[in-house]
Amino acid sequence: MxxxxxxxxxxxxGDIPGKRVxxxxxxxxxxxxxxxxxxxxxxxxxxxxxxxAHCGPAEQxxxxxMLLLAPKLALEQGLHDGFRTxxxxxxxxxxxxxxxxxxxxxxxxxxxxxxxxxxxRIGPTDSWCGILQTDLILERQNGFI
Length: 145
Prior knowledge:
This protein is α+β, with helices and mostly antiparallel strands. The chain is built from three helices and five strands.
């Protein structure tokens, strides 16, 4: 994917709107348009990096910056009891937008986070709540929680 085709690069450039949470010279944080929790935002580097697997020593500082911003921004977004972070890497890891991003979202006890928005268990009338509730029941039945 070229930088000109990347939706996150277009958000950074201001060509596509996004509900921004934070911005500085190196990173941008904005709310996910398909949230899987009541609070769900992403932190991205402004420079295009395809995935975590494409990072090297040159990205070390921005990776650290992104991870250290997660708890600060989570608190600002009202996540006082905790939060989850997720980095999907590569198509097999559930990555759908090929620009490195850290998901930060509300931690809801017992929720099993789907691999991606295209989780095959979801039909046209299903909701994430229903899927997550089903997962919680299965986890209890199998002794995981």
